[in-house]
Amino acid sequence: MALNGCYCNNIESVNQRRPLDNLGFTSSISAHKLSKNERSASIKSGNDKFHRFVVEMRQTEVPPSKYGTNGRAVKMVPATEVVKKKTISENKVETVNGSKKVVNRASLVRRDTTPALTKTMKPESSKELPPLEELKVLPSDEGFSWANENYNSWQRSIDVWSFVLSLRVRVLLDNAKWAYVGGFTEEKQKSRRRKTASWLRECVLQLGPTFIKLGQLSSTRSDLFPSEFVDELAKLQDKVPAFSPEKARGFIESELGAPINVLFKEFEDRPIAAASLGQVHRAILHNGEKVVIKVQRPGLKKLFDIDLQNLKLIAEYFQNSETLGGPTRDWIGIYEECATILYQEIDYINEGKNADRFRRDFRNIKWVRVPLVYWDYTAMKVLTLEYVPGIKINQVDTLTSRGYDRLRISSRAIEAYLIQILKTGFFHADPHPGNLAIDVDESIIYYDFGMMGEIKSFTRERLLELFYSVYEKDAKKVIQCLIDLGALQPTGDLSAVRRSVQYFLDNLLSQTPDQQQTLSAIGEDLFAIAQDQPFRFPSTFTFVIRAFSTLEGIGYILNPDFSFVKIAAPYAQELLDIRQRQPTGPQLVQQITKQAND
């Protein structure tokens, strides 16, 4: 899920905490210990002044076996007796990627419900959570039919199929030469396609979360859809309606099993970001720590179930249609991939695990930062993360005015992704500017871990073989690698495919340095070939290509002299060193080094 607010524009030290003693709170466990006699006296006297509410908050990673039925790691319960805990001095504190991480202890926060203390606990929102500006959050979703509780499956199916059939007619007319007044021209067709694409985007927005997410996924599939559609659907990344704060509060309370004022000292009603599957609110825990809460849209699972049943029928319809490339396009497989991705994204426990794993992968890289997960405030449909504000990576003027090194930032963005693809095999599948920000120390902050990709060791080996084959201009080997990767079906005569691949390789590798294309242009050329051939690129492959294209675009915004080849050359050479025993190894190293120097 793309959350475009990215907690940006209010840079402040996450470690700056306001003293809590005057609010009736403390981070010191030992300060609140009661002796056995004190506890007995308070219980015998029945004095409510000594009633305590204990909230345990762990930031450590929690194995799945410890989750409750609602996905939460630990229940929050009132207690009349404080269980003896270790003092803070007895515990270890580890720093990971610039964030404090609590190890081997539960940080207790206790509230005394005496009248004097209750009065002091009044929230001061103007000081604690300063307002954010320029938020791209549209009005509430209340006007949409899919947000209506009485909206049933029959109505939904009618809406979905009406949209699909209307789109089918529009596409047929766009491609029919007889439908153009005054004769057919490519310019007229492009103009009409742009109008259809604009209509498509508006329809997708009206149809709601499932189709918004599918539209975002489709914006990465230039191998399947016309460029006009891809460009228009990419605009869905920034504009998604929010749902009401009343719904958000109710949903959080239902999922976490406690009222908002018990869970949080302060909760901000206005979301700082809204996306197709949910939205993000800021809050403050009772111990003063600032967090962001990602809340799933109410009723989303039910809507997904209805929509995906219809989409399966649509995929079968496309598969049987020759005009939609049925024989050469695995629409059923594409549907199954999309369904898997969508269901994974609405599992916030899974997203929390993804964030923890991603942080572990970069534990030795100090300039990559991943927000901590607060498992005690996380469930299947509510995810609470450390509040890590930053400047959007593409906000060049702000970065420049604050003296940030744009060249270093552009290099780090690419290097971090190369590490994900070539070393860890676990990568962020949606690194657009809304999900990347810059910290005060020029670290790269990653947000949103709902859509992640994984490259298995076998796939990495095949990609390495593909890498060698490309630089050897060996179309036959390239085709075999694509077959091994599942991107090409080994059926029928592949002579035409081989000629297309050879033409692509000859043009790509014969360019002089001043003729070299951007990654985006190379990807478009590759997908253009795929549209006329029996290719079916796995979603992982298309995610990687789109991600590198996006990051390259960010690189050029930050640094006009940006060169992906120069940044990638050391990593490519490291890969080639693995095959140094092969005769072609040294020559390939020299070739890549020469291109980087040029």
Q: Give me the count of strands.
A: 18
* Number of discrete helical segments: 21
* Gyration radius over CA: 27 Å
Strand content: 5-15%
Q: How many structural domains are formed by the residues?
A: 3
Shape field: globular
Largest sheet: 5 strands, antiparallel
The separation of the N and C termini measures 39 Å
* Low-confidence region ranges: 10-127
How does the helix and strand content classify structurally? alpha+beta
Estimated helix fraction:
40-55%
Mean pLDDT: 73
Oligomer: single chain
Pfam families: ABC1
Domain ABC1 atypical kinase-like: 235-480
InterPro entries: ABC1_dom, Kinase-like_dom_sf, UbiB_kinase
Organism: Trifolium subterraneum
Short description:
By secondary structure, the protein is an alpha+beta fold.
Descriptive overview:
This protein folds into three domains: 1-123 and 244-296 and 347-390, no CATH class; 151-239 and 300-343, no CATH class; 455-597, no CATH class. The chain has helices at 36-45, 115-120, 125-128, 153-175, 186-207, 209-218, 227-233, 245-256, 260-263, 300-319, 331-345, 348-361, 396-401, 406-424, 457-471, 475-484, 495-509, 519-531, 539-558, 564-578, 584-597, and strands spanning 52-57, 78-79, 92-96, 99-103, 107-112, 138-140, 241-242, 266-267, 273-274, 278-284, 290-296, 368-369, 382-386, 391-392, 426-428, 436-438, 444-446, 452-454. Helix content is 46%, strand content 11%. It is built from 21 helices and 18 strands. Strands 8, 9, 10, 11 and 13 form a five-stranded antiparallel beta sheet that branches. The two termini are 39 Å apart. α5 runs parallel beside α7. With 598 residues, the protein is an alpha+beta fold.
